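Input record (Table S2, row 190):
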Amino acid sequence: MNNNYFKEIHIKNTKLILKKGDITKEKVDVIVNAANTGLRGGGGVDGAIHRAGGPKIMEECRRIITKIGHLPTGKVVATTAGNLYAKWVFHTPGPIYKDGNSGEEKLLESCYLESLKLALEKGAKTIAFPSISTGVYGYPVKDASKIALKSVINFIKTNHGIKEVRFILFDEYTFNTYLKTLTDFLKDQT
Ligand code: ADP
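Output record (adenosine-5'-diphosphate complex):
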């Protein structure tokens, strides 16, 4: 296994990076938050983003929820990134994993695709994702890594404008699982 906890590949003009770390430290245009449908904040990466970014992010989340009621799973909204380096935080609620046959795959794919589409609309060049749904929401990391990487790779093969997509994976197991999935995908292509 790779013990540098870093892997970079190029797909067309886009860099795809896997890195172990804390997403709040990333210097990117967009930090994606694995949110909940009420944009209420919480534990995990959501809590870390609000803590590091400060109260401006939550103020904007509240304004959005007052307008729209709730944000459906798989959709995305942008807010300020507050004190974070990024220009925006994108909030996307991932699916809560039940049995794998309850539409989870499409919804998880949608989190990644909707985020990438919004990034293009905003003119963002760099975006960082956490491993959506694989914490409290219980999605098995191996299955989630296949959906995450497949969605992102297909998107960057057919859309231009995003220079860098990073997956920031918080723990060794998650990093190693994503790395294995990516390595298997690359093998299949040769
Ligand atoms: P979900 O509710 O979508 O499952 P969680 O935040 O519980 O979201 O977990 C999603 C992933 O984010 C997990 O792999 C968790 O370890 C990871 N995570 C937690 N804190 C951070 C952080 N600061 N940076 C990047 N990933 C994080």
